[in-house]
Amino acid sequence: MSGSTLVALAYVLLAVFLVAGFLRTVKIARLPVHLRWELAPVPKEKTRGRYGGSYLETFEWWKHPREESTLAELRYMLEEILFLKALWKHQRRLWWWSFPFHVGLYVLAGALALTLLGGLMAAVGVAGPGWGLLSSGLPVLAGAAYALGALGALGLLVSRLARPDLRVMTTRVAFFNLALLLAVFATGAVAVLTVADFPARAVGLAHALLTATPPVDVPTALTVHAVVSLAFLAYLPFGQMMHFVAKYFTYHQVRWDDRPLEPGGRIECEVQELLQQPVSWAGPHIGANGRKNWVDVATEVDQ
Amino acid sequence: MTRRTRVNDIGREPDELLSEVKIEEMIPLPPPYENIEDQPAWKEVTPAARERMVCNLDGVVALSLPSPETEEEEQEYVDRFAEGLRKLLTKEDNWTFLQPLTLALEYCVGCQTCSDACHIFKASGEKEIYRPTYRSEVWRRLVNKYLKAGGKLAARLTGSDVDLNWASVTRLYELAYRCNLCRRCAQVCPIGIDNGLIAHELRKLFSQELGWAPRELHEKGTVLQLEVGSSTGMNEVVVKDNVEFIDEDMTEETGIEVTSPWDKEGADVLLIHNAGEILSWPENPGAFAIILNAAGIDWTLASDGIGYDGVNYGLFYDDFQLARVALKHVQTAKKLKVGKIVMGECGHQHKALMTVADRILTGDLRVQRESCMPFLEEIVFSGKIEFDPSKNDFPVTLHDPCNIVRNLGIVEPQRRILRYLCPQFREMTPHGVDNYCCGGGSGFAVMSSNNFTDWRVSVAGRMKFKQILDAFADQPGPEVKKYVCAPCSNCKGQIRDMLQYYGALEKSGITYGGLVELIVNAMVDVKEPFIEWEMH
């Protein structure tokens, strides 16, 4: 593949990733406010959060200011994001594979950031005094990411094939997703192991992408890895693997959203608008006709 | 080895059972309940009944859905189901839960962590159809295949080809009622996917689009409540009579003059019981009256509208019935100009009125609502009532109603009371927000058609019964009387059925009751024991 083709392909695939990822995130964020559906524990509850208690434990709770701890919430989030605490607690067998897999992804993101930084520095003609150290760390970082990620992806793949309880509920798409990720890590590992002067080559590719100039003589192993990784990125927004974004909403806007309705507040205004929408459910007791709105239907109870 | 039931099987062989529950495959119970042959036989669903009603899931018939007479009729229901499937995913028709439902639809990675948390799946011996993800995956595949462009081709290519037909629709209907909606699965999900919500939304689809719902929850539940005032069938006159009788009975039993005030305008507290208490456990509203009077609380009961029955079965199957009942509760409080509504010992009443309906109580519909747990804690520790904890010196354990504890985060007030008043209080394992459902949640406790009670007790309730026995393992014999405190009407109904089913009072000396009964039992002014060691 020529350098210019590679750069063009990279732009297309990155654009797909960014646009589709953005649109999918916006789609979730713009869904209407829902009825309260919180679920304990809500970690921001100061002192009570550790055992799952909420402000509703307080006698006449509305007379007291809510005691919340952003720190406790952040701690919960960090433990979950960095260490996959829920999986550790509730399904440790899978954690042993899922943890290295996710750490591999995080480290890979770090290695990619470092590579892009190198590319940027080259683009602006700055070769800082620390770059030598950073570039020597890149193969270590990338190597660790590929090793951990490949180990985790392989373990997850084998678990889903070998464990009857997992296999029966695993879709072909889920197998494909894991195989694709394994390919990303495996091609990366091959590139690190076989490409001479891997940091310079990787940074060269990053420089080419940042400056829209065709890279010179990209080794085949690095080309393969770049194409597989970019294809993965372009595919990412279309499946369940976007759960790292969804998780924000499931936690913050569903499980942990225990705000009582504030008179005149944003939620009340939005709900009042939603209640004006026509109802078309056909159940005979609903009494909807496509014109009556939610308020009409909820207040007319003579079925 | 038996072949595992697969997701795509749901639409196959409409007249055959998809799976079958067998006692010998369930988790074992501790002694003296370990022998399978000693466990009660299940009520038989006769071949004639199977002809009459749809029975194609697991041999259990909770819903008594009549078999259609023609294929055209079947197809009409299938088409209506497809229409309901679409409506569930629209803002106009389902804004109430669209965001959590969409998240559950699109982001489950199938790690099955939820399955290990599900008391029904585990107790059944891990029947595939009871996995929290099973019905969710069926629903997901139907949505992907029938509502998305190119869905049919994608379903074939990805092996996710579930047929939408009479078999899948009717099995999904029954399957929506094999989940207690306890949300333990959602709690452990690393991503936050709520499979309990999917069961809830399926129930809504059936009710709101097809008009299908369990008779006990709909006709004899919300419809009856909205018509006459209570799902028990009691009207205003009958409920007042019954409470007057309870007051007299309590006065006689305790030697304390007990009077329950009715419709007192401007009272600080409007106490709303689950009206089932008044009929099935009169000592519970009686104990409330004793405590509130002794503490000098300015309180009232309400006879207006549905103000004497806090039940809201709409929570379990229908957003409109939920809203209608919740609005009536609030209107009663508004009319009486009370300071606040206090929920009696009823879990789903707590959840329905305190949180789920919260956002539709806009404008002048706002009334402060409080759980009886912190309310009772405030009274018990106020010093207004003298207690003698030695009167409760028997083993007591606490069942955590999911709707109060896991769903509302009200964990400690009831425990602080029990630690203070019950010297032999001990926890179940696990407990608090990690508790197991009693098996009666989401309306099951009042559902008893055909052989459903057998399933509800021996499968859905199995984990809880095991937990109760384990909590009392240090004194297992019937000579030591033990008390399961279950501060929720539906949980009490289920625990009563479980203890009776296994003869646990006779074999293990275990009975059950609410929290207020223990409080009254410890009151110095109540001379005779308030708790009766009998099955009631």
Instruction: Give the fraction of residues assigned to helices of chain A.
Output: 55-70%
Question: What is the average of the pLDDT values of chain B?
Answer: 96
| Strand proportion of chain B | under 5%
**Largest beta-sheet characterization of chain B:** 4 strands, parallel
Principal-axis shape of chain A equals elongated
Class by alpha and beta content of chain A: mainly alpha
Q: Give the largest chain-chain interface (CB within 8 Å).
A: A-B, 84 and 97 residues
The rounded Rg of chain B comes to 23 Å
Query: How would you write the strand order of the largest sheet of chain B?
Result: 2-1-3-4
CATH topology of the domain at 3-24 and 93-239 in chain A: Fumarate Reductase Cytochrome B subunit
How many helical elements of chain A? Answer: 12
Within CATH, the superfamily of the domain at 3-24 and 93-239 in chain A carries the name Transmembrane di-heme cytochromes, Chain C
* Helix-residue proportion of chain B: 40-55%
SSE pattern of chain A? HHHHHHHHHHHH
Describe the fold and architecture.
The complex is a heterodimer of chains A (303) and B (536). Chain A has helices at residues 3-29, 70-83, 85-90, 92-123, 131-162, 164-167, 172-194, 198-211, 220-235, 243-255, 266-274, 294-299. Chain A has 303 residues and is an all-alpha fold. In chain A, α4 (92-123) packs antiparallel against α5 and α5 packs antiparallel against α7 (172-194). The relative contact order of chain A is 0.13. The mean pLDDT of chain A is 93. Chain B is mainly alpha-helical and 536 residues long. Chain B has 3 domains: 7-210, no CATH class; 229-378, no CATH class; 385-521. Chain B has helices at residues 47-52, 71-88, 91-94, 98-107, 113-117, 119-123, 132-146, 151-158, 166-175, 184-188, 195-210, 218-228, 236-254, 275-280, 283-294, 314-317, 319-336, 347-356, 372-380, 413-421, 452-460, 462-471, 489-502, 504-508, 515-521; strands at 269-272, 299-300, 340-343, 369-371, 396-398, 425-426, 482-485, 510-513. A 4-stranded parallel sheet of chain B has the order 2-1-3-4. In chain B, strands 6-5-7-8 form a 4-stranded parallel sheet, with helices on both faces. The longest helix of chain B is centred in the middle third of the chain and has 19 residues, at 236-254. The model of chain B has no long low-confidence stretch (mean pLDDT 96). At the A-B interface, α3, α6, α7, α10 and α11 of A face α2, α3, α4, α5 and α7 of B.
